[in-house]
Amino acid sequence: MESELRIADQGGVRWLILDRPASKNGLTLDLVDALTAALDAAALDPAVRVVVLGGAGGSFCSGLDLKAALSSPSGLDLGAGLARFHGLVRALRRVLKPTIGAIDGPAAGFGCDLALGCDLRFASARGRLGERFVRIGLMTDGGGTFHLPRLIGTARAFELLYEGRMVEADEALALGLVNRVLPTDGFDAAVNEYAARLAAGPPLAFARTKAALLQSSQAAFEDALSAEREGQLTLLQSQDFTEGVQAFFMRREPAFVGK
Which segments in the chain show pLDDT lower than 70? Predict the structure, then answer.
């Protein structure tokens, strides 16, 4: 597991790097647990001033690794695992330090939700974000219904959640999904340069500022996760989800029937 999550400290900046490039950094439940623990450790470490989430191999995160989940002895049990995914997004909010999503390549599905949960998002020129859940008959389940409308407005949130398309870096910047678009060459160094400036800032003031910003929305965030859990557990029992997964692996368009 250590090889699938690389942890690197550069001064007061801690990088948490998903390293499963063959799956575009798709998440297994073990990796979700490891990242949750790493975020909690970073939150408690006084030497860590800023946390950066990134991915190896030209991808940020493709969300759940469906192939790995289906090939596991227990099969695909998203219902049992959903609490662990929600534990991850809660852990990200518990880090009362600046968090940055370094989106170099695609951030799809729960990977998009993970990026949206960061305080700041920097994309490389090849960075892309997309709430792809509807493509397999599901709904966003990592806080997307909470974060998207607050970042880009309700109408745009509906559009992206209904369409399930990938948003290229320049459009993401124009919409407000990301804070900056940086050149792909030297991307990590540019992100780290910004993070290092934040790391030199006042940690107590940052913590109080973040706590105040989050406090006003905490109840709404938990309500969103509850609604996502209820909706997703229902959708996981649908014929449309089965069809969506089959279409995904067969690389064809799904034929949803609404059952």
Answer: 1-2, 70, 72-79
Q: What is the DSSP letter of 6?
A: E
In sequence order, the 6+-apart residues with CB closer than 8 A to the CB of 246 are 254
Q: Domains of the chain, with CATH numbers?
A: 2-185 (3.90.226.10)
Length of the chain: 259
User: Which one-letter DSSP state was computed for residue 12?
Assistant: T
Query: What does the pLDDT read at residue 75?
Result: 56
Give, as one character, the DSSP assignment of residue 208. H
Q: What is the per-residue pLDDT across 143-192, written as a single tens digit (0 to 9) for each?
A: 999 999 999 999 999 999 999 999 999 999 999 999 999 999 999 999 99
Report phi then psi at 50, rounded to 5: -140, 140
Phi, psi (5° rounding) for residue 28?
-100, 165
Longest dimension (CA), the chain: 55
Evaluate whether 259 touches 239 at the Cβ level (below 8 Å). yes
CA separation (Å) from 198 to 53, 98, 126?
Answer: 15, 8, 25
CB 123, CB 172: distance < 8 Å: yes
Q: Report the percentage of the chain scoring pLDDT > 90.
A: 74
Which residues lie across from 61 on neighbouring strands? 107
Give 116's contacts (C-beta < 8 A, 6+ positions apart): 101, 129, 142, 143, 144, 147, 148, 151, 177
Give the strand pairing for 120-124 and 99-103.
Answer: parallel
Q: Would the pTM of this model clear 0.90, i.e. be above it?
A: yes
Q: What pLDDT is attached to residue 113? A: 97
Looking at residue 216, what is its pLDDT?
A: 84
CA distances from 155 to 51, 162, 173 (A): 31, 11, 17
C-alpha to C-alpha distance for 82 and 17, rounded to whole angstroms:
22
